[in-house]
Amino acid sequence: MKKVKESPFSFKNINILSLDFECKNILEDGKHEIQINREVETINLSENLEEMIFEKRVILNLVIFNEDKKAFVSSSIQGDFKSKGIAEDKAKILFEQNAPSLLLSYLRPILSVVLQRSYFPVDIPFLNFTR
Question: How many CB atoms lie within 10 A of CB 25?
């Protein structure tokens, strides 16, 4: 069996920062249009340019709502990410695209449980974090 090689991109400390939900009326499954607003924020924690080590806190803010805004869920999740031995330009892509995608994979099941047991049953689609 081949030994698994550790990735030069890692994460820790994933935490939900906020979760706010409201639904003012019954919405039938699949009978409403939803909109999703997302915002990604990155905060530098440390960097060592010589050794190509970059650490950033990435925060994903997600708001899902229906067309008349009578139903919505707003959430925020953060994680601390580190790249080691990756050029700064390539590390930037990991922090701006891969990190929020990973955060969404942690947030999606939490939101799905809340939304599927509500009057706002929504399946959260995959989101494209490329620019």
Answer: 10
- Cα radius of gyration (the chain): 17
Find out whether 66 and 27 touch, Cβ atoms under 8 Å. Answer: yes
Give yes or no for residue 29 having a pLDDT over 70.
no
Question: What is the amino acid identity at position 6?
Answer: E
Considering the entire predicted model, what is its pTM?
0.86
Helix (H) or strand (E) holding 91: helix 88-93
C-beta separation of 115 from 20 below 8 A: no
Collect all residues with Cβ–Cβ distance below 8 Å to 24 and sequence separation of at least 6. 70, 71
Q: Are 27 and 45 in contact (CB under 8 A)?
A: no
